[in-house]
Write a structure and sequence with these properties.
411 residues; alpha/beta; Aspartate Aminotransferase, domain 2; 14% strand; binds pyridoxal-5'-phosphate
Protein backbone atom coordinates (compact mmCIF):
# COMPACT_ATOMS: atom_id res chain seq x y z
CA UNK A 1 0.00 0.00 0.00
CA UNK A 2 1.56 3.27 -1.10
CA UNK A 3 0.34 6.82 -0.68
CA UNK A 4 1.78 9.36 -3.03
CA UNK A 5 1.52 12.60 -1.08
CA UNK A 6 -0.21 15.51 -2.76
CA UNK A 7 0.97 18.81 -1.28
CA UNK A 8 -2.31 20.44 -2.31
CA UNK A 9 -4.42 18.17 -0.15
CA UNK A 10 -6.06 19.84 2.82
CA UNK A 11 -4.25 19.54 6.19
CA UNK A 12 -6.64 16.91 7.56
CA UNK A 13 -5.92 14.66 4.54
CA UNK A 14 -2.17 15.30 4.78
CA UNK A 15 -2.26 14.40 8.47
CA UNK A 16 -3.67 10.96 7.61
CA UNK A 17 -1.64 10.16 4.49
CA UNK A 18 1.78 11.76 4.98
CA UNK A 19 4.63 9.33 5.57
CA UNK A 20 2.42 6.24 5.49
CA UNK A 21 4.22 4.58 2.58
CA UNK A 22 5.25 1.47 4.42
CA UNK A 23 6.92 -0.64 1.78
CA UNK A 24 8.09 -3.46 3.99
CA UNK A 25 5.00 -5.39 5.03
CA UNK A 26 2.10 -3.50 3.44
CA UNK A 27 0.41 -3.14 6.82
CA UNK A 28 -2.36 -0.52 6.89
CA UNK A 29 -0.98 1.18 10.00
CA UNK A 30 2.80 1.56 10.21
CA UNK A 31 4.05 -1.02 12.74
CA UNK A 32 6.50 -0.41 15.57
CA UNK A 33 9.89 -1.54 14.29
CA UNK A 34 11.23 -2.58 17.68
CA UNK A 35 14.75 -3.39 16.58
CA UNK A 36 18.02 -1.84 17.70
CA UNK A 37 19.84 -2.61 14.45
CA UNK A 38 19.23 -3.68 10.85
CA UNK A 39 21.05 -6.50 9.06
CA UNK A 40 23.32 -5.99 6.07
CA UNK A 41 23.11 -8.60 3.25
CA UNK A 42 26.92 -8.51 3.03
CA UNK A 43 29.91 -6.52 4.30
CA UNK A 44 30.10 -4.35 1.20
CA UNK A 45 26.50 -3.15 1.64
CA UNK A 46 27.24 -2.48 5.33
CA UNK A 47 30.20 -0.35 4.31
CA UNK A 48 28.14 1.50 1.68
CA UNK A 49 25.36 2.28 4.17
CA UNK A 50 27.86 3.73 6.63
CA UNK A 51 29.58 5.79 3.94
CA UNK A 52 26.26 7.06 2.56
CA UNK A 53 26.85 5.52 -0.89
CA UNK A 54 23.70 3.50 -0.35
CA UNK A 55 20.56 4.33 1.64
CA UNK A 56 19.22 1.85 4.15
CA UNK A 57 18.78 1.45 7.87
CA UNK A 58 21.75 0.75 10.14
CA UNK A 59 20.93 1.35 13.81
CA UNK A 60 17.77 2.80 15.42
CA UNK A 61 19.51 5.73 17.13
CA UNK A 62 20.41 6.95 13.63
CA UNK A 63 17.15 6.15 11.81
CA UNK A 64 14.20 3.77 12.13
CA UNK A 65 11.25 3.13 9.76
CA UNK A 66 8.57 3.94 12.39
CA UNK A 67 10.37 7.13 13.37
CA UNK A 68 10.70 8.06 9.69
CA UNK A 69 6.91 8.22 9.48
CA UNK A 70 6.56 10.82 12.24
CA UNK A 71 9.43 12.80 10.63
CA UNK A 72 7.77 12.79 7.20
CA UNK A 73 4.43 13.77 8.71
CA UNK A 74 5.77 16.83 10.54
CA UNK A 75 7.69 17.99 7.43
CA UNK A 76 4.47 17.92 5.42
CA UNK A 77 2.20 19.40 8.10
CA UNK A 78 4.60 22.30 8.68
CA UNK A 79 5.93 22.71 5.16
CA UNK A 80 3.57 21.37 2.45
CA UNK A 81 3.23 24.76 0.79
CA UNK A 82 7.02 25.17 0.65
CA UNK A 83 7.63 21.58 -0.49
CA UNK A 84 5.12 22.15 -3.29
CA UNK A 85 7.31 25.07 -4.46
CA UNK A 86 10.40 22.88 -4.37
CA UNK A 87 11.77 24.27 -1.07
CA UNK A 88 13.69 21.73 1.02
CA UNK A 89 11.90 20.81 4.29
CA UNK A 90 12.62 17.75 6.45
CA UNK A 91 11.56 16.39 9.81
CA UNK A 92 13.60 15.11 12.76
CA UNK A 93 12.14 13.37 15.80
CA UNK A 94 13.50 13.25 19.35
CA UNK A 95 13.07 11.49 22.68
CA UNK A 96 11.52 14.59 24.32
CA UNK A 97 10.78 18.21 23.50
CA UNK A 98 13.89 19.13 25.50
CA UNK A 99 15.92 16.56 23.52
CA UNK A 100 14.82 18.40 20.40
CA UNK A 101 15.51 21.89 21.81
CA UNK A 102 18.93 20.97 23.24
CA UNK A 103 19.97 19.32 19.95
CA UNK A 104 18.98 22.38 17.91
CA UNK A 105 20.72 24.80 20.26
CA UNK A 106 23.90 22.75 20.43
CA UNK A 107 23.92 22.37 16.64
CA UNK A 108 23.58 26.08 15.94
CA UNK A 109 25.87 27.66 18.53
CA UNK A 110 29.56 27.71 19.43
CA UNK A 111 31.38 28.84 22.58
CA UNK A 112 31.37 32.65 22.70
CA UNK A 113 28.05 32.98 20.84
CA UNK A 114 24.91 34.68 22.11
CA UNK A 115 21.32 33.50 21.72
CA UNK A 116 18.44 35.97 21.55
CA UNK A 117 15.36 34.43 23.17
CA UNK A 118 11.80 35.40 24.06
CA UNK A 119 11.04 36.42 27.61
CA UNK A 120 9.58 34.34 29.24
CA UNK A 121 10.33 30.94 27.78
CA UNK A 122 9.16 27.47 28.71
CA UNK A 123 10.93 26.74 32.04
CA UNK A 124 12.90 23.75 30.72
CA UNK A 125 14.31 25.77 27.81
CA UNK A 126 15.25 28.51 30.21
CA UNK A 127 17.03 26.07 32.54
CA UNK A 128 18.88 24.55 29.59
CA UNK A 129 20.05 27.94 28.28
CA UNK A 130 20.94 29.52 31.60
CA UNK A 131 21.97 26.41 33.52
CA UNK A 132 23.79 24.39 30.86
CA UNK A 133 24.69 26.40 27.75
CA UNK A 134 26.07 29.23 29.90
CA UNK A 135 28.67 26.79 31.30
CA UNK A 136 29.91 26.33 27.75
CA UNK A 137 30.12 30.09 27.25
CA UNK A 138 26.96 30.39 25.18
CA UNK A 139 24.97 33.21 26.75
CA UNK A 140 21.33 34.15 26.30
CA UNK A 141 19.81 37.60 26.01
CA UNK A 142 16.16 37.45 27.10
CA UNK A 143 14.29 40.04 25.07
CA UNK A 144 10.72 41.27 25.16
CA UNK A 145 9.82 39.99 21.69
CA UNK A 146 6.10 40.62 22.12
CA UNK A 147 3.85 42.48 19.73
CA UNK A 148 4.68 45.02 17.05
CA UNK A 149 7.79 46.39 18.78
CA UNK A 150 9.31 42.91 19.25
CA UNK A 151 11.17 42.89 15.93
CA UNK A 152 12.69 46.31 16.64
CA UNK A 153 13.91 45.12 20.05
CA UNK A 154 15.43 42.01 18.47
CA UNK A 155 17.20 44.18 15.88
CA UNK A 156 18.64 46.42 18.61
CA UNK A 157 19.85 43.38 20.59
CA UNK A 158 21.78 41.77 17.72
CA UNK A 159 25.57 41.92 17.96
CA UNK A 160 28.37 40.21 16.05
CA UNK A 161 28.11 37.39 18.61
CA UNK A 162 24.41 36.65 17.98
CA UNK A 163 24.11 33.21 16.40
CA UNK A 164 20.52 32.15 17.01
CA UNK A 165 17.08 33.68 17.58
CA UNK A 166 14.84 31.40 19.65
CA UNK A 167 11.14 32.29 19.77
CA UNK A 168 8.06 30.86 21.41
CA UNK A 169 4.64 32.04 20.28
CA UNK A 170 2.22 31.82 22.01
CA UNK A 171 4.60 31.80 24.97
CA UNK A 172 4.17 29.27 27.77
CA UNK A 173 2.51 30.11 30.18
CA UNK A 174 1.22 33.64 29.66
CA UNK A 175 0.25 33.43 25.99
CA UNK A 176 2.28 36.39 24.74
CA UNK A 177 2.38 36.57 20.93
CA UNK A 178 5.51 37.47 18.91
CA UNK A 179 5.44 38.72 15.33
CA UNK A 180 7.22 35.73 13.79
CA UNK A 181 7.28 37.12 10.25
CA UNK A 182 8.81 40.48 11.23
CA UNK A 183 11.40 38.89 13.51
CA UNK A 184 12.31 36.41 10.76
CA UNK A 185 12.93 39.33 8.36
CA UNK A 186 15.48 40.71 10.83
CA UNK A 187 17.09 37.28 11.25
CA UNK A 188 17.35 36.80 7.48
CA UNK A 189 18.84 40.29 7.03
CA UNK A 190 21.53 39.43 9.60
CA UNK A 191 21.97 35.78 8.49
CA UNK A 192 20.97 34.45 11.90
CA UNK A 193 18.88 31.23 12.02
CA UNK A 194 15.43 31.54 13.63
CA UNK A 195 13.89 28.72 15.62
CA UNK A 196 10.25 28.81 16.74
CA UNK A 197 8.82 26.61 19.48
CA UNK A 198 5.40 25.96 17.91
CA UNK A 199 4.14 23.64 20.67
CA UNK A 200 1.18 25.81 21.73
CA UNK A 201 -0.07 26.61 18.21
CA UNK A 202 0.74 23.42 16.24
CA UNK A 203 0.98 23.53 12.42
CA UNK A 204 -2.82 23.52 12.28
CA UNK A 205 -2.93 27.09 13.60
CA UNK A 206 0.46 28.53 12.68
CA UNK A 207 3.24 27.62 10.21
CA UNK A 208 6.50 29.30 11.24
CA UNK A 209 8.44 27.98 8.22
CA UNK A 210 6.05 29.81 5.89
CA UNK A 211 6.58 32.95 7.98
CA UNK A 212 10.34 32.70 7.40
CA UNK A 213 11.64 30.58 10.30
CA UNK A 214 14.36 27.98 9.71
CA UNK A 215 13.08 25.48 12.26
CA UNK A 216 9.63 24.94 13.77
CA UNK A 217 9.84 22.60 16.75
CA UNK A 218 7.50 20.94 19.23
CA UNK A 219 7.20 19.13 22.43
CA UNK A 220 5.17 16.42 20.65
CA UNK A 221 4.33 15.21 24.15
CA UNK A 222 1.56 17.81 23.85
CA UNK A 223 -0.96 18.39 21.03
CA UNK A 224 0.78 16.27 18.36
CA UNK A 225 0.46 13.13 20.46
CA UNK A 226 -2.64 14.59 22.05
CA UNK A 227 -3.46 11.72 24.37
CA UNK A 228 -0.90 12.15 27.13
CA UNK A 229 0.60 8.71 26.41
CA UNK A 230 4.25 9.49 25.68
CA UNK A 231 6.99 12.10 25.78
CA UNK A 232 8.76 13.13 22.58
CA UNK A 233 9.94 16.07 20.50
CA UNK A 234 9.87 16.82 16.78
CA UNK A 235 10.88 19.50 14.33
CA UNK A 236 10.55 20.58 10.72
CA UNK A 237 13.61 22.27 9.28
CA UNK A 238 14.53 24.26 6.19
CA UNK A 239 18.23 24.21 7.04
CA UNK A 240 20.56 23.11 4.26
CA UNK A 241 24.34 22.83 3.81
CA UNK A 242 26.63 22.91 6.81
CA UNK A 243 23.86 23.97 9.25
CA UNK A 244 21.80 20.93 8.25
CA UNK A 245 24.84 18.67 8.59
CA UNK A 246 25.53 20.02 12.10
CA UNK A 247 21.90 19.43 13.13
CA UNK A 248 22.01 15.82 11.93
CA UNK A 249 25.44 15.22 13.48
CA UNK A 250 24.34 16.49 16.92
CA UNK A 251 21.04 14.61 16.66
CA UNK A 252 22.78 11.29 15.97
CA UNK A 253 25.62 11.71 18.45
CA UNK A 254 23.88 13.47 21.33
CA UNK A 255 21.48 10.59 20.89
CA UNK A 256 18.16 12.00 22.12
CA UNK A 257 16.34 10.44 19.17
CA UNK A 258 12.74 9.25 19.20
CA UNK A 259 11.91 5.66 20.12
CA UNK A 260 9.83 3.63 17.63
CA UNK A 261 7.07 3.25 20.25
CA UNK A 262 6.79 7.01 20.78
CA UNK A 263 6.94 7.57 17.02
CA UNK A 264 4.00 5.17 16.60
CA UNK A 265 1.96 7.06 19.21
CA UNK A 266 2.81 10.51 17.83
CA UNK A 267 2.18 9.54 14.19
CA UNK A 268 -1.24 8.21 15.09
CA UNK A 269 -1.92 11.30 17.24
CA UNK A 270 -1.03 13.61 14.35
CA UNK A 271 -3.70 11.97 12.19
CA UNK A 272 -6.46 13.56 14.28
CA UNK A 273 -4.62 16.82 15.07
CA UNK A 274 -6.64 19.07 12.67
CA UNK A 275 -9.91 17.72 14.06
CA UNK A 276 -8.82 18.04 17.69
CA UNK A 277 -7.43 21.56 17.31
CA UNK A 278 -10.75 22.79 15.95
CA UNK A 279 -12.52 21.59 19.12
CA UNK A 280 -9.73 22.74 21.49
CA UNK A 281 -10.01 26.26 20.04
CA UNK A 282 -13.81 26.33 20.26
CA UNK A 283 -13.87 25.18 23.89
CA UNK A 284 -10.97 27.44 24.93
CA UNK A 285 -12.63 30.53 23.46
CA UNK A 286 -15.82 29.70 25.41
CA UNK A 287 -13.87 29.09 28.65
CA UNK A 288 -11.89 32.34 28.21
CA UNK A 289 -15.06 34.37 27.57
CA UNK A 290 -16.78 32.81 30.59
CA UNK A 291 -13.84 33.49 32.89
CA UNK A 292 -13.40 37.07 31.63
CA UNK A 293 -16.91 37.88 32.84
CA UNK A 294 -16.51 36.10 36.19
CA UNK A 295 -16.38 38.42 39.23
CA UNK A 296 -13.64 36.37 40.96
CA UNK A 297 -11.25 36.55 38.02
CA UNK A 298 -8.78 39.42 37.74
CA UNK A 299 -7.29 38.78 34.27
CA UNK A 300 -7.66 36.22 31.51
CA UNK A 301 -4.80 35.67 29.05
CA UNK A 302 -6.13 34.22 25.79
CA UNK A 303 -5.12 35.49 22.33
CA UNK A 304 -8.69 35.04 21.09
CA UNK A 305 -10.03 37.73 23.46
CA UNK A 306 -10.11 41.31 22.14
CA UNK A 307 -8.65 42.32 25.53
CA UNK A 308 -5.42 40.37 24.79
CA UNK A 309 -2.65 42.90 24.04
CA UNK A 310 -1.59 41.07 20.86
CA UNK A 311 -5.05 39.97 19.67
CA UNK A 312 -4.70 41.70 16.27
CA UNK A 313 -1.28 40.16 15.70
CA UNK A 314 -2.59 36.71 16.72
CA UNK A 315 -5.43 37.12 14.20
CA UNK A 316 -2.91 37.93 11.46
CA UNK A 317 -0.51 35.11 12.28
CA UNK A 318 -2.71 32.25 13.50
CA UNK A 319 -5.72 30.48 12.01
CA UNK A 320 -7.36 30.29 15.45
CA UNK A 321 -6.15 30.95 18.99
CA UNK A 322 -5.40 27.56 20.51
CA UNK A 323 -6.49 25.57 23.53
CA UNK A 324 -4.46 27.25 26.28
CA UNK A 325 -5.93 29.84 28.67
CA UNK A 326 -4.16 31.40 31.66
CA UNK A 327 -5.91 33.31 34.44
CA UNK A 328 -5.17 35.32 37.51
CA UNK A 329 -7.73 35.17 40.29
CA UNK A 330 -8.64 38.23 42.35
CA UNK A 331 -7.66 36.37 45.52
CA UNK A 332 -4.16 35.57 44.18
CA UNK A 333 -2.60 32.18 44.71
CA UNK A 334 -4.77 31.25 47.74
CA UNK A 335 -7.85 31.57 45.54
CA UNK A 336 -6.09 29.66 42.73
CA UNK A 337 -5.34 26.77 45.09
CA UNK A 338 -8.99 26.60 46.21
CA UNK A 339 -10.10 26.56 42.57
CA UNK A 340 -7.59 23.87 41.53
CA UNK A 341 -8.42 21.67 44.54
CA UNK A 342 -12.15 21.81 43.86
CA UNK A 343 -12.42 20.88 40.22
CA UNK A 344 -13.77 17.51 39.11
CA UNK A 345 -13.63 17.59 35.31
CA UNK A 346 -10.23 19.34 35.04
CA UNK A 347 -7.21 17.21 36.01
CA UNK A 348 -4.67 18.81 38.32
CA UNK A 349 -1.47 17.97 36.46
CA UNK A 350 1.30 19.55 34.43
CA UNK A 351 1.68 19.02 30.65
CA UNK A 352 -0.88 20.32 28.17
CA UNK A 353 -2.45 19.70 24.80
CA UNK A 354 -4.32 16.57 25.86
CA UNK A 355 -7.77 15.43 24.79
CA UNK A 356 -8.93 16.03 28.39
CA UNK A 357 -8.71 19.30 30.33
CA UNK A 358 -5.74 19.96 32.59
CA UNK A 359 -5.00 22.70 35.10
CA UNK A 360 -1.67 23.63 36.67
CA UNK A 361 0.16 26.31 38.63
CA UNK A 362 3.34 27.49 36.80
CA UNK A 363 4.86 29.32 39.82
CA UNK A 364 5.01 26.15 41.93
CA UNK A 365 5.33 23.64 39.07
CA UNK A 366 6.75 24.22 35.53
CA UNK A 367 8.51 27.53 36.32
CA UNK A 368 9.30 26.91 40.01
CA UNK A 369 13.08 27.11 39.66
CA UNK A 370 13.09 30.62 38.16
CA UNK A 371 13.97 33.11 40.95
CA UNK A 372 10.74 34.72 42.23
CA UNK A 373 11.68 38.30 41.32
CA UNK A 374 12.67 37.29 37.78
CA UNK A 375 9.53 35.17 37.38
CA UNK A 376 7.25 38.00 38.45
CA UNK A 377 9.07 40.48 36.21
CA UNK A 378 8.45 38.29 33.17
CA UNK A 379 4.72 38.04 33.89
CA UNK A 380 4.45 34.71 35.68
CA UNK A 381 2.84 35.83 38.91
CA UNK A 382 2.26 33.66 41.97
CA UNK A 383 -1.44 33.67 41.16
CA UNK A 384 -1.24 32.61 37.50
CA UNK A 385 -3.19 29.43 36.79
CA UNK A 386 -2.71 27.66 33.44
CA UNK A 387 -5.58 25.78 31.84
CA UNK A 388 -5.27 23.35 28.93
CA UNK A 389 -8.81 23.16 27.63
CA UNK A 390 -9.76 19.69 26.41
CA UNK A 391 -12.50 18.14 24.35
CA UNK A 392 -15.13 17.51 27.04
CA UNK A 393 -18.57 19.01 26.53
CA UNK A 394 -18.26 22.76 27.08
CA UNK A 395 -21.29 22.78 29.44
CA UNK A 396 -19.48 20.37 31.78
CA UNK A 397 -16.29 22.45 31.69
CA UNK A 398 -18.09 25.70 32.51
CA UNK A 399 -20.13 24.04 35.25
CA UNK A 400 -16.96 22.63 36.82
CA UNK A 401 -15.25 26.04 36.77
CA UNK A 402 -18.38 27.68 38.13
CA UNK A 403 -18.54 25.21 41.03
CA UNK A 404 -14.82 25.57 41.75
CA UNK A 405 -14.97 29.37 41.69
CA UNK A 406 -18.03 29.32 43.96
CA UNK A 407 -15.79 27.82 46.68
CA UNK A 408 -13.40 30.75 46.39
CA UNK A 409 -14.25 33.37 49.00
CA UNK A 410 -15.41 36.82 47.93
CA UNK A 411 -12.67 38.60 49.89
N1 LIG B 1 8.34 23.64 24.80
C1 LIG B 1 7.18 23.94 25.41
C2 LIG B 1 6.43 25.16 24.99
C3 LIG B 1 6.69 23.14 26.45
O1 LIG B 1 5.56 23.47 27.06
C4 LIG B 1 7.46 22.01 26.85
C5 LIG B 1 7.00 21.16 27.96
O2 LIG B 1 6.08 21.47 28.66
C6 LIG B 1 8.66 21.74 26.19
C7 LIG B 1 9.06 22.56 25.16
C8 LIG B 1 9.52 20.57 26.60
O3 LIG B 1 8.98 19.38 26.13
P1 LIG B 1 9.19 17.93 26.83
O4 LIG B 1 8.56 18.02 28.17
O5 LIG B 1 8.49 17.00 25.89
O6 LIG B 1 10.64 17.70 26.91
Amino acid sequence: MKHKINYNWKLSTQALKAGEDNKIVDSHITPIFATASFGFPNVDIGRKRFSGEETGFIYSRLANPTVNVSEKKIAILEGAMLLDKGVFVEGHAFATGMGCISTVIMALTNAGDTIIATNPLYGGTDYFLDGIMKRFNVNTQHIDTSGEKGAERVKEAITSKSSLIFLESPINPNLIICDIEEICKIGKEKHIPIVVDNTFATPVLQKPLELGADISLHSSTKYLNGHGTSVSGILASRLTGSEREKLIFVKKNLGATQSPFDAFLVSNGMKTLPLRMKEHCKNAQAVAEYLEEHPKIETVFYPGLTSHPQHTLAKKQMKAFGGMVSVELKGGIDAGIILMNNLEVFNLTVSLGCIDSLISHPASMSHAKIPTDVRIKIGISDGLVRISVGLEDIDDLIEDLSRGLHKVSNK
